[in-house]
Amino acid sequence: MKILLVEDDKTIASGLEYSLQQEHYSTVICHDVASAKEVLAEGIDQFTLCLFDLQLPDGSGYELCKMVKEQRDIPVIFLTVVDDEVNVVMGLDMGADDYITKPFRVRELLSRIKSVLRRYQKPSQAKNIIDIDNIRINTLVGKVFKNNAEISLTALEYRLLLIFGNHIGQVLSRNQLLEQIWDVAGDFVNDNTLTVYIKRLREKLEDDPGQPTLIKTVRGLGYKVGD
User: Fold this and answer.
1) CATH number for the domain including 80?
2) What span, in angstroms and rounded, lies between the C-alpha atoms of 174 and 157?
3) What is the CATH number of the domain that holds 175?
4) Which residues cross the membrane (predicted)?
């Protein structure tokens, strides 16, 4: 995930950059409105979240927030020394998702970032259509299709496939899978049962179940669907 940080205090910016990178965020740092606008013009789609200082030498974080929100609905958090209701309300009315008042603890900011990102992730986790190669999951009607032909799945098989569909490209451990499918449809699910259901899904969905390309085993870690 890449974060755009616009902060005119270079010492604060450097400290925040280090902390964000320690949390495995990549960062782009700007120190004024003009350079931030150039970066956004080059490719706003590269960013997952924006942190904007409210008071900048050549303008304000309001301008940048307006620019971002007009192009894409990505989260914006304001950094401000002005704990002033008028400024806070104005920022939120412009579409900002949160604000934090300086001085702040880095841990508090990281917590706010994670909270805002979770809110934005919820719609994507509720997709009506999920495509995985030649497999399509229609969550509105609870049906699965392979090459446009419907595939009959049990409730637990469907739930297991949906978990994979909501985590495309991620390696899921057996424990993670077990936690999410436990007791679905009244069935007792243990490690051996999970193995059986993975096998059944492969038999129904893979072109060659013996050499699966859809539900891939990542040795020593778990399973992965997609790149």
Assistant:
1) 3.40.50.2300
2) 15
3) 1.10.10.10
4) none
